[in-house]
Amino acid sequence: MQELFVEGGNRLNGELTIQGSKNGVLPVLAATIVCAGECRIENCPHLRDVEASVAILRHLGCCTRWDGNALLVDTTHMDKNEVPDALMREMRSSVIFLGAILARQREAVLSYPGGCELGPRPIDMHLAALRSLGAGITDLGGKLRCSAGALTASEIVLPTPSVGATENAILAACGADGTSVIYNAAREPEISELQEFLNAMGAEVRGAGGSIVTVRGGRTLHGGSHRVISDRIAAATYLCAAAACGGEVRLSGVDCAALSTVTAALYEAGCKVESGERDVVIKSSAALRAISPVKTAPYPGFPTDAQPALMAALLKSSGSTVFVENIFENRYRHARELARMGADVCVAGRVAVVRGVDSLHGADVACTDLRGGAALVLAALQAEGTTRISRLEHIDRGYESMEKELALLGARIERREEEAWQKRDETEDAEGEGIPSS
Ligand code: EPZ
Fold it and tell me: DSSP characters for 152-167?
């Protein structure tokens, strides 16, 4: 087991190039199996979730190879349509493979992805979309078999703009003869990225980024190349770190429009933020002020994935900030760990109130989930003394060497192997769940 040791108090200065997007690359990797051919995915981040997707692709009979920061995927000899439980458990968002396997093989079997640290994570909308396209779904007791002799184009109406359900519907619709229309589609940039990659493979997807997406399916697709977009949540995380610690940081290769709700919040907190074409500069005195209520919402609203990082940035602000988490049921698990460092966060269901404190102090804390873990790092950067952060497997799912990026900006942070005598029971979880999340 590894741990991060953080000495708080340093300002952050310098420039980072933001990694490829975790939530962008995962559906793209699933999409590679819709064709029988070779795909080249440039700017592919080295993350645990990418490794989990590669394991699934290999299990299905595909070949993969890294070429620097490019991942090459050859799906020509794909010969399976089942994702076993062990691989599903490694990454909950593996459910995104369902639509792609169905489009390619007309049958897909995978274990129920189950819940995670953020809440129950149902897939009812995914399954309803696949049924609309003609798939029959059988519950095999913990496993799902989706089969369709033929997928037929359909009109799909999503009750809420679910990112994963939109992606699964688009992928499955690629295998359905005719033109499918998805209403109330998620509008996240990652949906547009999936559209771009599928069209590079010869598909005809239109409307991504808006609420109505059309897919002209039944076409034979071919391999394609794609460059993964920058990770807007990683960018938001480092902006919040700079806001909290003080200093001047430039992030390059970012989509500033996708960051606008986060940069607006940091501007309101007292930071100077300059957004260029593909870069953003933040200047902070570290003396932040509380801001108006932060309500997470589907894109283009404030991203739920940036809520923990913004909360961490405001822990020492003057005044109180109200957070309302409208996407996930249980996305404040990091608050308890932040309290161990002296933070004052009061949680009541979907609402959390952050009251700024004069100081934070180092402590032993454990990551509860991916973005909650990032929040602990940001709190530690502001704390007096040393903070030891364990359960780094959560952070490593979505951040490419976070400690190296922060050290480049001047943070005193390093990763160490946990001392043998400190080894914790690996099955132990902050709340005893230990279930992977997406
Ligand atoms: C994607 O998850 C992201 N993951 C999440 O990022 C992100 O927080 C989320 O979208 C919202 O933006 C990936 O892209 C891999 P949803 P997803 O379907 O697709 C409920 C991170 O930290 N719902 O939009 O699972 C669901 O329970 C991760 O990078 C149903 O009820 O999100 C949730 O409350 C965390 N039924 C809400 O909708 C369904 O069939 C939003 O979920 C599907 C979803």
Answer: B--EEE-SS--HHHHH
